[in-house]
Amino acid sequence: MTGTALKKEMDMADIQNSEAFENHASENNTAWQKVCTKADLVAFSGVAAWLETADGPAQVAIFYLPGLGQGKGDELFALDHHDPFSNANVIARGIVGDLKGAAVVASPIYKQHFRLEDGQCLEDEDVKLRTWKVKFKGDEVWVEG
Amino acid sequence: MSTQQQLIIIGNGMVGHHLVEQLVDNGALERYQVTVFGEERHRAYDRVHLSEYFSGRDADSLALCEAGYYATSGVELRTSEAVIEIDRNSQEVVTEQGRYPYDRLVLATGSFPFVPPIPGNDRDGCLVYRTLDDLDAIQAAAENATTGVVVGGGLLGLEAANALRGLNLDTAVVEFASRLMPMQVDNEGGELLREKIEALGVQVLLERATQRIEDGEASRHRMVFQDDKVLETDLIVFSAGIRPRDQLARDCGLEIGERGGVVVDNQCLTSDPAILAIGEVALWNQSIFGLVAPGYQMAKAAFSTLTEGDTQFGGADMSTKLKLLGVDVGSIGDAHGNQNPSARMFRYLDPIKQEYRKLVVSSDGKKLLGAMLVGNNSVYDTLLQYYSNGIELPDEPASLILPQSSGAAPTLGPGALPETASICSCHNVTKGDICATIDAGAVDLGGVKAATKASTGCGGCTALLKSVVDHELEARGVEVDKSICEHFAHTRQELYDIVRVEGIKTFTDLIEKHGNADTHRLGCDICKPAVASILASCFNEPITDAAHIPLQDTNDTFMANMQKNGTYSVVPRVAGGEITPDKLIVLGEVAKKYSLYSKVTGGQRIDLFGARLEDLPDIWGELIAAGFETGHAYGKSLRTVKSCVGSTWCRYGVQDSVGMAIQLENRYKGLRSPHKIKFGVSGCTRECAEAQSKDIGIIATENGWNLYVCGNGGMRPRHAELFATDLDDEQLYRTIDRFLMFYVRTADRLQRTAVWRENLDGGLEYLKEVILEDSLGINDELERQMQTVVDTYQCEWADAISDPEKLKRFRSFVNDDRPDPSIIMTSERGQLRPA
Ligand SMILES: Cc1cc2nc3c(=O)[nH]c(=O)nc-3n(C[C@H](O)[C@H](O)[C@H](O)COP(=O)(O)OP(=O)(O)OC[C@H]3O[C@@H](n4cnc5c(N)ncnc54)[C@H](O)[C@@H]3O)c2cc1C
Ligand code: HEM
Ligand code: SF4
Predict the structure, then answer these.
(1) Which of A89, B188, B511, B808 is at 20 to 30 A from B764, Cα to Cα?
(2) B555 close to ligand 2 (CB < 6 Angstrom)
(3) Is the predicted ipTM greater than 0.90, yes or no?
(4) Is A85 found in the same domain as A64?
(5) Contacts of A68 in chain B (CB under 8 A)
(6) B648 and B781 share a domain?
């Protein structure tokens, strides 16, 4: 459900921003892409990134929880920036925390919680955000999309 | 029994309704087809709290049951239909609409206010105080009145006087006897009461018998007294006692007492065994009981009689505790000590604090027979327990009424009460009943209340009930869980104390030291903003500093309120609502440049909506350059100080309300608190700034400022309560400093002052003791803390736009400069709005 809602919006966005879109569309759809550096991230919080994927553009929320994975990775998470409950692109601006053992982000609009691990909404089992693979390469942040 | 019997109840007041509840709850409707006649328009309502009608409650919230209760229970309720005759021969009651047969009949007609037979007592604007309709009439009459008089200085008279005062009338009380509340207090107590009430600006005239009421010269009426003295007034409320509504019973020949009242026995049966009487209309053992608790007990006895049970009515305790015009008055048992010839009395009078307490004890000094309290009811609950449970008094009974500091005065803890101790007298709930519900599975106060109804009557036992329930739960090893969330086993107040005492300055430190070990110690959207607010209240470091930024709600993070489409609003501070034309022009120009929707708020400033995240720094840069600063519309903090135009322009104003509002707004701006705080300042009693609906309301007087606290608008409006009078500017700042800091210190997260105040044990009196009398000895500290916050104020936006590190978050995407393309606007009435 989330996917189609997002897709539809992006179609409108494409029309609005066709110039910008073309610029990006000319890029190669590689599996892993660099989005930013560590300095762009905010520890224990999120930032949003614009991603071109094979399925079209996507807005991705990237969260950085230093120390959470105790050195085994697991300290970067990437999921939909789009909040399916409010239909606004705001997830990266939510508060990060842990509930019942899982790291979560709370939507800043209506406060539902989404598991960072897999995007699952804790309040509504039918709702799940998309997730992307994300990792550090040195100081760079790379997302597979 | 094949057919149902017809049971008719006349009167849908408090007691009649209680009987219906008994019948419904105990399955008696299989046997009886019940019809209730009520003369009033409204279904049964809480007459005890009638006066709250003037402080914002309406008929629906005062009602004793949901609107559909009667219909769904299968009881026929006929409101606005008075019974005009009882025909005992044919066993029928008669109304204008028809005749209705009965097998059993219950009279629950209550009483009517006695209006003394004074010529002129039926003039327009001569009213009584008993029903919702009476209150509507008073309110209507008060519209174009400036003065009001209450005839009768008893309990209800003083309550009516308070109501008139609340309607902004200059109020006087005229009493026939030589003291106020002659039934409840003695001469010394009455004198103290008079002083206190006069200090509130209510005139008290004693030993005045009104001879006649005629046209006045300056006002609508003139009251002429026995010595030809006169008093002019626009409105008169008679409250000279109540009389049982026994006319129906008289007309059909039931036995009536000499001074009125339908005679009943222990089963509440009248002289006709088919007919019962309960509540204020019933006369038992030569007594009328003018309180709701005995009425409820009669209803229970009547239910028992109707169902062949054996519960009887055996008289009732008339002990009462009240707050009249803000003055505590308590009376227990034989308060005058004139029913027990051998009784001995202890008296304590504090002429400075204006408190009076009297104990009436048995000749051996072991039992409490009665007590009287004026000015301070804090020992009432304890004394009542000694009295009603016959608990042996301590060796020095006087210690019970001496001030706390002079030693002893042990309050009876909940553990010391016997099982039979009555906790809620309205619903006759004992400590034993409470223990039983807990043993049967109730796990909190709400559960106990639902199961026993305790504390749902007059509410006088709320604090006692809570302490008994908490005590019993703890005794059973139930941890009363007050944790803020799964990360901390502490309340907000405890976290606040920890932060202050240990000087902890970051969330990370706090959760490391005091967080629950079995979580990831990341916190959550409950505890993080709460701790952020505590840290800001204590240390006032910018909320956008690196250590604090992940704690903030998005609104605080971006120092703007997120709207439903992900854009933000911009609200610069306009202290007191005063703004220069030049600044107005800047607001207009900025709004135009960034395509912002503009609206004037109820807080007397201008809200610009639809700002994109990446535009916020530029918008604020321009605003700050023009001399604006952040308005904290996003924060749990001071919002606005609303003001009327005041004495500088207004012909009625007595003080400069705008000047004061600006002073206050600038003093408290930036204070982070458990929830938002709103102020209002009015320049005279006309109250154009609606200050009494604010957390802090200030109304100018000839001599300074009256301070009101803990008001609220919104879903559950609450009038602010008068806290201190005639303060000068300095006193006003100091009192507000203390009040706000005490609130910041002790409230729960997201608890507005109104709710905080309602949950505060000891209520307004306690608050006054702490803030005005420094009973906790913390006022210096509270003032110091507030001064620190005032001294360290800096505009968060000014701080942020000068720090590139902080500005880095103000873009839609880390890797792309484009704005979020899915924000789409459309136009309406010449401005943009979300599509
Ligand atoms: C302002 C105020 C404050 C009070 N404060 C307190 C307090 O703090 N504590 C306390 O214990 N008590 C207090 N009381 C007293 C308490 O309200 C009464 O004791 C209680 O309401 C009595 O209940 P009742 O059912 O007997 O009478 P009511 O509640 O008066 O009900 C009687 C009903 O019968 C109706 N009726 C009468 N005749 C007929 C008829 N012929 N046909 C149909 N209907 C009829 C009346 O209209 C009325 O609605 C207060 C009362 C007032 C007015
Ligand atoms: C649960 C109830 C309420 C919520 C959640 C709420 C929320 C808000 C929010 C978010 C704003 C800021 C708007 C913005 O700038 O984006 C606001 C402003 C305002 N609200 Fe409320 N509000 C509530 C109840 C009330 C009530 C009951 C009143 C009045 C009695 C009120 C009066 C105002 C005023 C006057 C403003 C503008 C204040 C200013 O100028 O900063 N609000 N409210
Ligand atoms: S409250 Fe008084 S001073 Fe203020 S505007 Fe109204 S009338 Fe004038």
Answers:
(1) B188
(2) no
(3) no
(4) yes
(5) 520, 522
(6) yes
